[in-house]
Automatic annotation (TrEMBL):
Pfam families with a match to the protein in the record: dCMP_cyt_deam_1
Residue ranges of domain CMP/dCMP-type deaminase in the record: 5-118
Record lineage: Bacteria, Bacillati, Actinomycetota, Actinomycetes, Micrococcales
Signal sequence interval, chain numbering: none
Name recorded for this polypeptide: Nucleoside deaminase
Protein's organism: Leifsonia virtsii
Gene3D superfamilies: Cytidine Deaminase, domain 2
Length: 159
């Protein structure tokens, strides 16, 4: 699915939010979530302001949109972002079940500005044993119990 002319104004808004965020002391990232042609929510990078390394523009937009619609699913929505989603935000978009993601700048633009997006994509493409941060398995006896409890819970909310 390619981008359409109708995407450009929403993308322009996301880019404007990103640029404005720099003037406000934040990171150069902005995002917009739209469903059925209507704006659901916007987001700006809040990492340094909130001391939250996960407060990327896409994540803050997803959180705001879900709060507004009262649902953990954003099915049918489009996420517009000023820059190609990093692995965190790409995963957040998948978890939120958005219909599509449209971005303006890419991981190479972000790398030029000193951000790790491209580096993390390259990291995920490598064997985890080569990562600078060890991610190791220790399968304790109760490891599977949470999933057993989940599967046994007939009142659970699947997602
Ligand atoms: Zn991100």
């Amino acid at each position: 699915m390619s981008a359409a002319a109708s995407d450009a104004p929403w993308l322009d808004l996301a880019v404007r939010l990103a640029t404005e965020n720099v003037a406000a002391g934040g990171g150069p990232f902005g995002a917009v979530i739209v469903r059925d042609g209507a704006l659901l929510a916007t987001g700006q990078n809040r990492v340094t302001r909130d001391n939250d390394p996960t407060a990327h523009a896409e994540v803050t937009a997803i959180r705001a949109a879900c709060a507004i619609v009262g649902d953990f699913s954003l099915a049918g929505a489009t996420l517009y972002t000023s820059c190609e989603p990093c692995p965190l935000c790409a995963s957040a978009a998948l978890w939120a079940r958005v219909e599509r993601v449209v971005f303006a700048a890419d991981r190479h633009d972000a790398a030029r500005a000193g951000f790790d997006d491209r580096e993390f994509y390259e990291l995920f493409a490598r064997d985890r044993a080569t990562w600078p941060t060890p991610v190791v398995e220790l399968r304790v006896e109760a490891a599977a119990e949470p999933f057993d409890a989940w599967l046994a819970d007939t009142a659970r909310t699947d997602y």
